[in-house]
What we know:
The complex is a heterodimer. By secondary structure, chain A is mainly α.
Amino acid sequence: MTTHRKKGTRRGLAAAYPSWFYLPAAIIFGVLFLFPTFASLFFSLTRWTLFQYSFIGLDNFRQFFSEPFLVWGLVNTLIYAVVTSGSKVVLGMLLGILLTSNVMARGLLRAVAFFPVLVSTIGVGITFTMLMHPTNGLINDVIATFGLKGPAWLTDPRFALLSVAFVDVWKGVGLATVIYIAGIVSIPPEYYEAAKMDGANALQRFWNVTLPLARPATVTVIILSLIGGLRSFDLIWAMTKGGPGFTTDVVASVIYKQYQAGFYGLSTAGNVVLFVLVAAIVVPLSVMLNRKEVEA
Amino acid sequence: MTTKKFRYYATGILSLVVAFIVFVLPFLFIIVNALKDKPEASLLHFSWPTETHFWANLVAVVEARDYMLMTAFVNSIILTVVAVTGLVVFGAMVGFVLQRRPSRWSGLINFMVLAGLIMPPAVVPTIWLLQWLGLFKTLSGLILIEIAYSLSFSVLLFRAFIATIPRELDEAAILEGAGPFTLFFRIVLPLLKPVAVTVIVVQSVAIFNDFTNPLYYLPGAKNATVQLTLFNFQSMFNTSYNLLFMNILLITIPPLIMFLFFNRQIVEGMTAGAVKG
């Protein structure tokens, strides 16, 4: 009797919620995303002209880890992702706390900090390239009024990568901020009242209430900005195109350059390196961060 | 009391000044330079133009390269509208069945959704495939690509929202004799309006601003999208910064309009899941 009814319900479910609803999405996703992903595992092992290929084993990967300009890309990707992600956590949290407190013109401040998120990355990149111009740029003009000489932000190899990372943070911190605002607002006010009653000062309240209870927001900001940072391409391409030399090249810009140069096998190997890099960093990190949260 | 008030005004004014310098000034820089003539803009100064050339610059940008910007606006609008429509309908269909009928496929589908969110797409094999399908360098190809790359986000949002719609509603409709098509398109889809608006505004801003995918899959000046015009103009206008800034200004208007009308939905969509983790 029970099995019979179960069967009936299952058939009922299948009739009301048919599997073919998956079909349009599954075809588009399967053909245009999954298939190329699997194909890339094969083509990364070849020398490839798009029309014919010859199997060369792991040569592309060997090249990736030995040619200095390709290794630069790998190292820069990690630096860029860690710097932007870390800055967005710290600044996003500070702005989130400021913009959930009783501050003047709160709505206006929130809007102003968030708007850059929605603006064209290429437009932002071009604008900041002008602002960071070594001799005519507004930033160095301001520094000059203090009698100092600002560096060549984008053409000095020591500063270039960090300058682009700064613009990335400028553009993206608004998103981190609204995520923190959502997280902080959801903390029940009783916790703060209890902490106040126990005589905790503002810093202690931040350390013992806000920081642990805004943890889901922190996890989201870290994961989102790491994924974005590791895959970052358009801002770097708009500002430096990987230069000077290869000092701001990242894996994503290497993929594009090798593609343009017609080294399709090598470019695809770069793509596989990028998958592995993203998966190897983001997946364990999100598992770890989410587990700790349950234990706490 | 007075020190409290003093602190309130001091932090308030300080925050406003810092926010103005950090976040507003770069946009004012774009605006004032978009109004200048060529020699004055090339100085890259932050100053009010001695003479405003708004109309002349606007016409020059629009007419440049045989009205390329107009073509690009049309292309970008078609791309955005069609891709976002696909994302809403197909994403909602997946989210609906995924939430309502757990099966042995659910685990795999959830894994695919996460993979789609995290993994960077494999570029050259995609180009190879698009060439084979005859979709490379076509707007239809790019539309399908944008749908494929953003489906995950759309499915996640729809699934979460559908969980809040009571099942009894479906059952009532089924008892009334509604088939799955009627149930979904006539009963459920209209109820998804709030989350659909979120998906629409977030994704249309993202697709309109997309640079990387058009660069790879829709190259060539003939069928450029707006982000590529900026890039193509960068070399062409390297001595005419006024026109470059005017171009930036023009392509910032659509996101600005979205922001003014749908700020709440955009923020909601982008922070979805942040509280739950």
